[in-house]
Each structure stands twice: as C-alpha cells, then as structure tokens.
Design brief:
0% strand, mainly alpha, single chain, 7 helices
C-alpha cells in the first residue's frame, strides 16, 4: 500500500489540492447563492422569470450558457463532495437551481421540501439576515390566531 501511495504521490497531491479548493469554494459560493434565491421562488403559483429574458438574444444566450455551465460545475462539485469534504447536498441543490431543463421547477420543489435541505438553506439565509423561503402561500383570509387577538 505504501509503495502505491509513493508511486502516485503527485496524483494524490493534485486530488488533495482540488478537494481543498472545492471545499473553500463551496463555503464561499454556496451561501452567497442561497441568500439570492427569492423568498417566494418555491411557491406553487410562482413561475420564475427566465434570466436575461429582456436582453438582446446574444446576451441572453451567453448568460444562459454561463449560468448552466456554473450549475453543472456545482452539481459535479457537489457529487465529489459527497465523498470529499464539503457541503455536497447543498452544493448539488444550488447547482440544480442554476440549471435549465424540463421539469426543473417541480424537481426543485421536491428537493427543497426535504427537511434537512430546507433547514440548512433557511439557516444560511438567517445568518445573512434574509427572510426564510416560503413554500406555501399564506392566505389573507385565514382567521387570526388567538395570540394575534390577545396580545
């Protein structure tokens, strides 16, 4: 075993360096992206507006390509972090949010409703003083609770 490690010493250093960069990058990028998700993004009737929709077609396509490349990289990094140190599941979720594919909004809704995922996302949002994500529309016609009636 020791001989195998000695033989592949350079590859092991490259893997360790990549792992460290992904770990540090995820600690910086994932919270920054999570805070920028609109609080009503996951409401059932809310359909997200396509990014760059009002831009010139060249800018729109360039922006969409860059956004999808970033999403793909984050998904791959998240998959790697399932084995390496880092925030694997959260990084995968953020990567999926950036990707564009049919059925994406429905898949995002299912993923964010997983207890630990929603708890982690809202914890990061709270640390940045952002409002928690809303998953259900609160009805304006609901009866007030007794605590609201009697202060």
């Amino acid at each position: 075993m020791w001989a195998l490690l000695q033989e592949h010493r350079e590859a092991i250093w490259w893997i360790a360096a990549f792992s460290g960069m992904v770990f540090v990058g995820s600690i910086i990028v994932v919270p920054w992206l999570v805070v920028r998700i609109p609080e009503d993004y996951f409401l059932p009737r809310k359909r997200p507006r396509l990014p760059f929709a009002d831009q010139h077609p060249i800018l729109r396509w360039t922006g969409l390509i860059i956004k999808n490349l970033a999403g793909g990289i984050l998904v791959l990094a998240g998959l790697a972090m399932l084995l390496l140190p880092g925030q694997g599941l959260l990084t995968i979720v953020v990567g999926v949010l950036l990707l564009d594919f049919p059925g994406k909004h429905r898949l995002e809704g299912k993923i964010i409703r997983i207890g630990p995922v929603l708890k982690s996302v809202n914890w990061l949002r709270a640390k940045a003083n952002a409002t928690p994500l809303r998953l259900e529309e609160s009805s304006a016609h609901e009866a007030p609770s007794t605590s609201e009636l009697h202060p």
